[in-house]
Amino acid sequence: MLKYYNYDIVFQEIPNEVTLAISITNCPNRCKGCHSPHLQEDIGEELNENRIVSLMDKYVSAITCFCFMGGDRTPQKIAELANFVRLHYPAIKVAWYSGCAKLPDGFNNKDFQYIKLGGYIEKMGPLKSKTSNQHLFQVQQDGSMKDISYLFRTF
Ligand code: SF4
């Protein structure tokens, strides 16, 4: 079961978007220096279609993007819920922050506009660092992924 710990409206995770970011728990990655170790625990409330509807009832008019923060243990469930968001809220972009270095084999990215890949490696720095191993991609209509990490790295 996919669960989440909390959510927030954020402005920096996806450039030029106002994003409802859902922090998903039971993260299987074990990044050294993890910024949120509690997200490695199997805690929180179930994130399902009904929960998404209740969140959207409150926030859809205030946001431009819905982002799954985590969910690497069940990527197919993330893809299913992304499809639900895209079909029911077509004006809202869909994003996924994965801690994996690449998409799972056969993963269908068609319901996402943005995907972040890469775990946290302390010495390489976070996404905004020029040396970071993490990258944010914009998914193109043909499914190819354009690296737009430079939008974080303008200094
Ligand atoms: S992916 Fe994020 S939550 Fe998971 S271990 Fe790495 S830093 Fe922590």
Automatic annotation (TrEMBL):
The protein's required cofactors: [4Fe-4S] cluster
A molecular-function term among this protein's GO annotations: catalytic activity
Gene3D superfamilies, alphabetized: Aldolase class I
The organism's place on the tree of life at top rank: Bacteria
Keywords: Iron, Iron-sulfur, Metal-binding, S-adenosyl-L-methionine
This protein's name: Anaerobic ribonucleoside-triphosphate reductase activating protein
Record lineage: Bacteria, Pseudomonadati, Bacteroidota, Bacteroidia, Marinilabiliales
Gene: nrdG
